Amino acid sequence: MKNEINIIIADDHPIFREGLKSIIAADPGIKILGDAADGNAALKLIKTLRPDIAILDIDMPVKSGLDVIRELLKSEDDVKVIVLTMHKDERMVNNILDLKVMGYVLKESAINDIVDCIRSVSEGDHYISPLISGLLLKRRSRLEGLAEKNPGLESLTPTETKILKLIAENMSSKEIADLLFVNHRTVEKHRENISTKLDLQGSLSLVKFALENKSIL
Description:
Elements: E1 5-10, H1 14-25, E2 30-36, H2 39-49, E3 53-57, H3 65-75, E4 80-85, H4 90-97, E5 103-106, H5 110-122, E6 127-128, H6 130-149, H7 158-168, H8 173-180, H9 184-197, H10 203-212
Parallel strand pairs: 1-2, 1-3, 3-4, 4-5, 5-6
Helix pairs in contact: 1-5, 2-3, 7-9, 7-10, 8-9
């Protein structure tokens, strides 16, 4: 018999949280180890109970769901994360997926999606609410179009791609260096390499390119 999937749930709306718990608890293969109403309590539960999956609301007091996810990334904790959110905008989807989140569930469809999401994520697969899957198709199409116009995008290293995204967030080389724990000159060298690969002349051209294409990078 397959082991139970152990989870914790964090959401600051008690009625929604209790409703979600009742739906999940009806599945005999999933065990709820605990629940929390804010990000700080959620992080403590994760560290103490070591669940297989943490279901986190993005907008919570004390620590947001994103704050919790960033803390987990720093500690290299192997818990898989599913986010609950009302956000449908493409930029938010992109930002959250970039944080290695395995599941993205819209609150409005959580009743129908959450159990399927838990099971998919437990198997190592990504799950995104069908309501927003169209956003990802749109992003992929736009990114492919951008790559056709700028073939150099495909030659960027993972580090260069990450730096390009940070430039799109209007971050300076010093801010990027501090975030990535590297030397300022290292970032400047990466910026030069990115500009060369994208056939852009000058740092301002790179910033302009990054800002114009922020939503699909």
